[in-house]
Design a protein that fits this description.
With 241 residues, the protein is α/β, with parallel strands linked by helices. The protein is built from 9 helices and 6 strands. The two termini are 22 Å apart.
């Protein structure tokens, strides 16, 4: 009797803001300027509530803080300011480009799964030296933002178009925020949390790394293998009852 083949790492699904690039300070500065322009005050605690959330949700919070603009106008204003900063300097997170390069060399497919909209995501991706990302799922291409799993499920389905045998068990998500981690876990993909602006709550369902610096494809492959091993053990235990 031959053992079933173990799932292998086929794809890495990358969050952008806070995971690939440290744009959160750019967003927070834009939020401060916007709220203050409307006579309000914007605290660090309020800004932290928006980390990893969809832009539509964030725009609603900014309206509650006194910004007298339509949600679409708020999103466009904030995004334009962040894009302007990105064009001056892209603040890469430690280890992110190195891991991207290794994944690319190993033939592991990469997709960007971000709540930022297309124009900003394109600016970031265009500044990379190689076409690391096969495609992007952006906040303006889904109907429900993180923490809903739609963005990650959409990414998996797009990957399956050219590899019907691919499942969530072949995919690893890299995320820094509470909403992002929740979205990845809810989709069923193997999830790595790399906390940055805010700590992540304890959760046995994910792996936590303090940084991507020094991390390797082999470690991501091991996470996929560990998921398969645990799933297999669960099946064996269930059959024994």
């Amino acid at each position: 009797m031959h053992a079933a083949p173990q799932p292998r790492l086929k794809a890495a699904l990358w969050d952008m803001d806070g995971t690939l690039v440290d744009t959160e300070p750019y967003w927070i500065a834009a939020e401060h300027a916007l709220v203050e322009a409307h006579g309000g005050r914007w605290s660090h605690e309020q800004a932290m509530q928006l980390v990893g959330q969809s832009l539509t949700h964030s725009a609603g919070i900014l309206q509650e803080a006194g910004v007298r603009m339509e949600k679409r106008d708020i999103i466009d204003t904030l995004s334009a300011q962040v894009i302007e900063r990105i064009r001056v300097e892209v603040p890469w997170r430690p280890g992110a480009r190195e891991l991207l390069e290794e994944l690319h060399g190993a033939g592991v497919r990469c997709a960007l799964v971000t709540m930022s909209e297309g124009p900003l995501a394109h600016e970031v991706v265009a500044s990379l030296p190689k076409p690391y990302f096969e495609f992007m799922v952006t906040g303006d291409s889904v109907s429900q933002g993180k923490p809903h799993p739609e963005a990650y499920l959409t990414a998996v389905e797009r990957l399956r178009l050219s590899d019907p045998e691919l499942t969530v068990d072949h995919c690893v998500a890299l995320e820094d925020s509470i909403p992002g981690v929740a979205a990845a876990l809810a989709s069923g993909v193997v999830t790595v949390g790399i906390p940055h602006q805010m700590p992540l709550p304890e959760d046995a369902g994910r792996t936590t790394w303090s940084t991507l610096a020094g991390r390797t494809v082999a470690e991501l492959e091991q996470l996929v293998a560990d998921r398969a091993r645990l799933a297999g053990a669960g099946v064996l235990l269930e059959g024994a009852n």
